[in-house]
Amino acid sequence: MKIRTIQLYPDRPDVTLTTYLLDDSRETTQGKKRPAVLVCPGGGYLFCSDREGEPIALRFAAMGYHAFVLRYSTYGGNRPDFDMGSPVETPDPRSIFPTSMRDLGLAMLTLKDHADEWLLDADRIALCGFSAGAHNCAMYAVSWNRPVLVDHFGVDPERLRPAAAILGYGLGDYVRLHGEARALDPFAARLQRSASIALFGVEEPDDATLEQLSPARQIGPHVPPMFLWTTSEDSLVPSTQSLVLALALAERNLPYELHVFEKGSHGLSLAVQASASSRAEIDPDAAKWVELVESWLTKRLALDLPEKPFWMA
Amino acid sequence: MKIRTIQLYPDRPDVTLTTYLLDDSRETTQGKKRPAVLVCPGGGYLFCSDREGEPIALRFAAMGYHAFVLRYSTYGGNRPDFDMGSPVETPDPRSIFPTSMRDLGLAMLTLKDHADEWLLDADRIALCGFSAGAHNCAMYAVSWNRPVLVDHFGVDPERLRPAAAILGYGLGDYVRLHGEARALDPFAARLQRSASIALFGVEEPDDATLEQLSPARQIGPHVPPMFLWTTSEDSLVPSTQSLVLALALAERNLPYELHVFEKGSHGLSLAVQASASSRAEIDPDAAKWVELVESWLTKRLALDLPEKPFWMA
To answer: What's the pLDDT tens digit per position in A195-220?
Structure first.
């Protein structure tokens, strides 16, 4: 495996792409290109959580896919000492939409530019995000062929197309989220307020902005197949957010898969010890999303393997 | 993750230890030491199979364990161009027992020497081998406190003790294997003959040598807990080899777990696409050994996690 951290802009040490490139071998891929999964950790656009970075990349690498972790633009500048609990008052233009989504576009172009060098199948790159990272991936999945990305990069939209999107406890509809009365503890309420200022620049964005950042309201045939999962007990990003996204896909007869586990709070990541900060984030039921996504991915991203081993050919 | 390949002897580029060291984070391990899994690929003591190296290490890394791949002494000197199908006639002292087992001892000491630097729990290192690599691990598991290792390294035997051994389609009893009539195809018969010359130095070793290299005949209370798995259809290393090893453990009331899947040929590794050279080596039933070993490992190697996340403390 080749691990390298690439700074995506010369003047931005905070925005990085870390590669987890699997070795080629005459016993396995024999020089053939592998599909890839590009991971966006969550963290309320305030930081990028380590719990949703390397552990996720390694789990996809263990499935046979090249994996990448993108640390996109966040309010905290991805500084290791950023305190996610401290309230945010002043917006920072570096974290306001669409910067993080454009970071994802640049990461996608970087993968496609290195397809030959990395033995990477440029037509089979899936996105995988969690919480705010899932929102970033979902926004990208509805926007990849639009001027906000195409004109910005000046490329053929096909170069920006993702093959699939995997969204864990994501945000799908900000209009609905801001309209819902929810009982949040003081920590969660502060986090949500800070996240709004980080992403929108204001605590209470206008309706047009909320609509613009609601992927569930922008679903069309250009959207790639989606795999959604969450828990019914999530009080920070309610499961309604995944449900309305699934509803929008289902109404348009677009391929999707959805798993809502009953138990489990927000931010379970893999729901196993590898991604846990405590035993409260281990849940064998919710952890089944990984097996489910492994099966789902092989329907469209499976490695191109011969029928029989080479020593029997 | 930190990946580095370490040459274990100054004059032996063929014997290497590759590290897959997980990142520490204030969100996960918070400076605490992780247990580790040390992987020995199979390959009939002729080579070390890539299919049982990196894919295995990454799967254990995805469980939250530091992982290592040992390329131990083999007849082919781990040269990438070695043809495993070409018959072996002349023995090479570098692959004859106990060199490969001592390589494993040196790897174990290397892990324990770097425990502080690598944030590695020296008391919780599991071995994991496949086929010939499983035989190497099993021989080590019965020999770690004996002169062949202790006097050779001149260390306190406790420094060599493994915490557990995971053995996939391994060789447990050479006396029995050589006594059993088996219908092998010409390729398999040549492989077995070559493997004998590589490990014993001769095609037909005497009874004392066969006994000496049969871990099932040397089980005692010093042997660590074992997890065994194989398939009933394995014609190269029959499932009887795992059964007699389990029998020896059961008769002494030692902790072990055994899973024999009905279907599947020799050498399935993870039995998923990540370790396959062809679709013939993918088997969703046999692949369940990985989930089973994940549960089994958490009984003795679980990460030391607090009850609640630090932001709720």
So the answer is: 999 999 999 999 999 999 999 999 99
As to burial, measured by CB atoms within 10 angstroms (0-12 exposed, 13-18 middle, 19+ buried), residue A79 is exposed
- Over 70: is that where the pLDDT of A27 sits? yes
Q: Residue B66, SS3?
A: strand
Q: Residue B198: what pLDDT?
A: 96
Mean pLDDT to the nearest integer, A211-237: 97
The dihedral region occupied by A154, where left means phi > 0, alpha psi between -120 and 50, and beta the remainder, is left
CA-nearest of B9, B225, B205 to B105 is: B9
pLDDT digits (tens, 9 = 90+) for A114-138: 999 999 999 999 999 999 999 999 9
Q: What sections of A76-120 are H helices per DSSP?
A: 99-113
Report how far apart, in Å, the C-alpha atoms of B145 and of each of A62, A237, B140, B141, B157 are: 34, 55, 9, 9, 5
Chain B positions in Cβ-Cβ contact with residue A281 (cut-off 8 Å) = 309
Amino acid (1-letter code) at residue A210: L
Residues 6+ apart with CB under 8 A from A186: none
Q: What residues have CB less than 8 Å from A127, skipping those under 6 apart?
A: A37, A38, A40, A104, A137, A140, A141, A162, A164, A165, A166
Question: What global pTM score does this model have?
Answer: 0.96
* Cβ pair A286, A263 in contact under 8 A: yes
CA distance linking residue B179 with residue B205, whole number of Å: 12
> How far is A277 from chain B, CA to nearest CA, in Å?
4
The backbone torsions φ and ψ at residue B36, rounded to the nearest 5 degrees and listed phi first, read -140, 155
Name the residue among A272, A298, A275 with its Cα closest to residue A283.
Answer: A272
Tell me the pLDDT band of A183, cut-offs 50, 70 and 90.
Answer: confident
Cis, bond preceding A147 (omega within 30 deg of 0): no
Give the pLDDT confidence of B131-175 residue by residue, as tens digits: 999 999 999 999 999 999 999 999 999 999 999 999 999 999 999
Question: Closest residue of A to B22, CA-based?
Answer: A54
CA distance A47 to B222: 48
Encode pLDDT of B174-218 as tens digits. 999 988 877 888 888 899 999 999 999 999 999 999 999 999 999
Q: Are B228 and B164 in contact (CB under 8 A)?
A: no
Write the single-letter amino acid at A1.
M
pLDDT at A313: 59
| Structure-token pair, residue A258 | 């959805």
In the numeric block, the tokens 């080590």 are attached to B140
**Interface-testing mutation among A20, A27, A32, A311, with chain B (most B C-beta atoms within 10 A):** A27
Choose from B34, B52, B65, B278 for mutation: most chain A CBs within 10 A: B278
Determine whether the interchain pair A63/B274 forms a contact, defined as Cβ–Cβ distance below 8 Å. Answer: yes
Query: Which residues in chain B touch residue A272, judged by CB atoms under 8 angstroms apart?
Result: 63-64, 294
Rounded distance between C-alpha atoms, residue B112 and residue B103, angstroms: 14
Strands in B139-254 per DSSP E: 164-168, 226-231
